[in-house]
Amino acid sequence: MDKYKRYEIRLIKNDEYEIVIYLADHLSEFANELGTLPRERKDVVALAKQIIGERYPNIKVTMVKVIIGGIAVTSLPLMGGDESSVQAATSTASTNQVSQDGSIYYQVNSGDTLWSVSRNFNTTVNNIKRANSLTSDILQLNQRLIIPKAFHKVEKGDYLTVLARDYRTTVNAIKEANRLTSDSIQLGQVLIIPVLIEGQTILQPTTSPPTQPTQTNTYTVVAGDTLYSIVQRFGTTLEAIRATNNLTTDLLTIGQTLTLPPNTPAPTAPIPEQVTRNYTVVGGDSLSVIAKRFGTTVEALRSANYLTTDLLKIGQVLVIPSRNTTTEIPAGANEQATPTAPSTYTVVAGDNLWNIAQRFGTTVALIRSTNNLGTDLLRIGQILNIPTRTNETQPTPSLEPNETKTPTPITNTEERNTFTYSVRSGDTLSVIAQRFGVSVDNIRSTNNLNSDILQVGQALTIPNGINAPAQTSENTLTYLTHTVVSGDNIWDLSVRYGIPQSELLRVNNLTITSMLTLGQRLKIPVHNIAVKPVVSEKHGEFLDWWTEAQYVFTIGKTVKVTDLATGKFFNITRTIGANHADSETPTINDTNIAKSIWGGYSWTPRAVILEIEGRKIAASMSFMPHDREYIANNGITGHFDVYFSNSTRHVDGKPDASHQAQVERAAGLR
After folding, report:
1. Do 52 and 96 touch, CB atoms closer than 8 A?
2. How many CB atoms lie within 10 A of CB 157?
């Protein structure tokens, strides 16, 4: 049944409970059928049994109540009569019920992880940890969490009443989340805007539950896997999977077998619920555009993602709902939603000509010729015409989960030649070999490779291959158009699109005091920074700060930093900075690792490598927190400095020779 919105458990008497199922408000006809048609009654009972069996196996549920549009339309028995018992084996643990309405706290249920909670509320793990000052990913049963809707920096004209109205919350909720004792707030103060938790029912055990047997599963690494994607897939943490497998590096090899932490779900467990995929919002997206692309509706997207507004942010992750079914998801399956083949296609983050050609059953050469492309570089938001191949029966991609088709092989008659290819994020030898119609062994022997591990930016010679990419190592500049909506301002737009505020003002002939108007069209520069060759696997790309690095490491981006000398790594977030990247550690754990490298706090620059979206960038970093901070409860007060080639000091605008030397060292140039 795909019509229900939510459910809750209520205590009736003593140890008996009822399950209340809320159906979509428009199902008035279904409400009438509930009283007359046995099939509809059985559907509701079956749904109730499924929920109870999965979430509440140790309590006694005797009644199911159905509510539509706020009205209780029927109650059906679950114990006795024609219905079979759904009570599980007797447990020695008794329960108390706690109901939450309009609370700012979410109470952790059995089986919850930070990943699953963040996905349920359309936020991120880091945001939840930040809002609750968490230093680890471990949750405790019945732990209370604040779920942040946003982190708002107080500006001129902000009041609690205004913020409560704009974010559709209450003044008391904001005060409680931020432990405010009055309505006074200060300019620059960062406030947690909490999600209001409506109608959560928690069953609290009053005695210790029986110990569950430990379940251990394994997973075999496939092409495209990273530790981060694996922990997201199985709802665990990087620390747990590293410790379980005694990993000293995050590098994985295809075919490597990983032991999943105890009680992690099996890799191929069936999901008896609505099949969903994830999609990351890019420039030019709207709910209607996304709904059309994936064959769903705006209402379905709003419902699946708990959206209260149609405004989207670049980088926001949306759940794409599909048909209600039970399907096996094989280990390593691609979790990204795949649209059906259109006559035109809008480029999104991560696209290249090869994967677009594969997706729609055509060739790189046909896409190039159809669109008169002189380069293989694509820009986000670019619209491509997808050529049809009338002489072949290539099936188009589909979201049908149980459908398996064998594509008709594409006979490629393109000219073969030997060329150089620069490795991109997500590439493996097998992917590259398939892309260019050669064997893995040929690539290995031609390039004298002793390992299958590739480095982004690494140059490979492709012997006698097809689909040779247009050779370019130049940066390109394109433009998008943004139409101003309510709430927009220049600073937020510059952060959203990853460009300096001064540049956004300049290209639109604006000043810092200019006012935006609804419907105003702004020109948005999009800098496409080409991947540069690297000296070796351990070194990074040598990027100029002013023309390259600041567009790769943009404000708000969290990246992995590896100290070149020790190999220790931690995460940092760029929070501000024009002449160089002012950054902060997102957690106390990151701070402690950095302190262990620098021996405390120090202005001494060290050569570091930043891993940004599959690229490794050479940089220099000191670790002396100072001045303004944006991230609270991370163990430091203030920010520290990260330099790239030709970065300058804020105080005098001049280069720093010691930082420049460390950048060159990180790039392998000295």
Report:
1. no
2. 7
Q: Which of 383, 395, 389, 410 is nearest to 466 (CA)?
A: 410
Strand, helix or coil for residue 426? coil
Phi/psi of residue 544, nearest 5 degrees: -75, 130
Residue with tokens 């909670």: 117
- Residue 475 gets the label, from left (phi > 0), alpha (psi -120 to 50) or beta, of beta
* Banded pLDDT at 338 (limits 50, 70, 90): very low
Structure tokens at 123: 């936020």
CB 619 within 8 A of CB 609: yes
pLDDT tens readout for residues 72-112: 666 777 754 333 333 333 333 344 444 444 578 888 886 67
Query: Half-sphere exposure (CA, 13 Å, Cβ side) for 159?
Result: 4
Neighbouring C-beta atoms of residue 514, cutoff 10 Å: 12
Identify the CA nearest to 558 among candidates 630, 658, 468: 630
Is the whole model's pTM more than 0.70, yes or no? no
> What tokens does 216 get?
């251990």
Tell me the three state secondary structure of residue 9.
Answer: strand
CA distance 388 to 306: 38
By three-state DSSP, how is residue 154 classified? coil
Residue 212 per-residue DSSP state: P
* pLDDT, position 254: 66
Residue 420: beta bridge partners?
Answer: 461
Q: What is the pLDDT of residue 199?
A: 54
Name residues whose C-beta falls within 8 Å of residue 156's C-beta, 6 or more positions apart in sequence.
187
Q: Is the dihedral of CA 502, 639, 642, 591 positive or negative?
A: negative
Encoding tokens for residue 648? 């300058």
Q: Judge contact between 662 and 607, C-beta under 8 A.
A: yes
C-alpha 188, offset from chain centre: 28
> Which residue type sits at 391?
N
More confident position, 9 or 518 = 518
Contact criterion met (CB below 8 Å) for 616 and 540: yes
The C-alpha R_g of the chain, in whole angstroms, comes to 27
The position carrying tokens 């005098």 is 652
Q: How far apart are CA 615 and CA 593, in angstroms?
A: 22
Q: What are phi and psi of 302, to 5 degrees?
A: -60, -45
In this prediction, residue 575 carries a pLDDT of 93
- How far apart are alpha carbons 35 and 231 in whole angstroms? 46
Name the residue among 361, 449, 448 with its Cα closest to residue 409.
361
Q: What angle do CA 221, 447, 413 make, to 5 degrees?
A: 85
